[in-house]
Amino acid sequence: MASKLPRLADLSAAEGLLLAQLAAGALLLGAGLRLLALRRLARLRLGPFPLFPRRHPIERVALLAGWAAHLSLGQGRCLARSLLLYWLLRARGEAAVLHIGVARKAAGLDAHAWVEHAGRVICDSADMTGRYAPLARI
After folding, report:
1. What pTM value is reported for the model?
2. Is the backbone peptide bond immediately before 50 cis, with ω within 30 degrees of 0?
3. What is the side-by-side order of every strand in the sheet holding 133-137?
4. φ and ψ at 13, to 5 degrees?
5. Residue 48 above 80 pLDDT?
6. Alpha-carbon distance 121 to 127, whole Å?
7. CB-based contact 125:68 (threshold 8 Å)
8. pLDDT, tens digit, for every residue of 52-73?
9. Under 8 Å between Cβ of 83 and 69
10. Residue 81: which of 69, 95, 64, 98 has the closest Cα?
11. Cβ proximity of 68 and 22 under 8 Å
């Protein structure tokens, strides 16, 4: 956690506000994933959440969504990160596709979630997402 503090200190006030909102959203996602089907959860309209979503470049928003998921929920939170990013892009009026994929592992199946915007994968590499067979697109 200490290694994250210098990077967090470099955030602007607007980025800090967005990160706080995303962290709260990530915590709510934890409950939402237990109560709602993924498709229904992804399609929720969150009203004014987040405040001021247009101020930041998509790459920066993706980074903040990843931090929020990690800080709020811990490691391995690609679904929370991807849902936050998907919601943010939709709040900005931009098209986005949420992908869920699976890959066979020795111990069973592994799953991964990512977002595609304007024909390119956001917050992941094509190498990473290419390892997974498509299971769902939202």
Report:
1. 0.83
2. yes
3. 120-122, 108-117, 97-105, 133-137
4. -60, -40
5. no
6. 10
7. no
8. 656 788 888 888 998 888 877 7
9. no
10. 69
11. yes
Residues near 120 by beta carbon (within 8 Å), at least 6 away in sequence: none
Residue with tokens 């709602």, as numbered in its chain:
36
Show the tokens assigned to 11. Answer: 């955030």
What is the average pLDDT across 40-44?
A: 85
| Contact status, residue 114 vs residue 138, Cβ threshold 8 Å | no
Residue 46 has pLDDT above 80, yes or no: no
Q: What is the DSSP string of the chain?
A: -GGGHHHHHT--HHHHHHHHHHHHHHHHHHHHHHHS-HHHHHT---TTPSSSGGGS-HHHHHHHHHHHHHHHH-S--HHHHHHHHHHHHHHTT---EEEEEEEEETTEEEEEEEEEETTEEESS-HHHHTTSEEEEE-
Most confident among 1-10, 74-83, 112-121 (mean pLDDT): 112-121
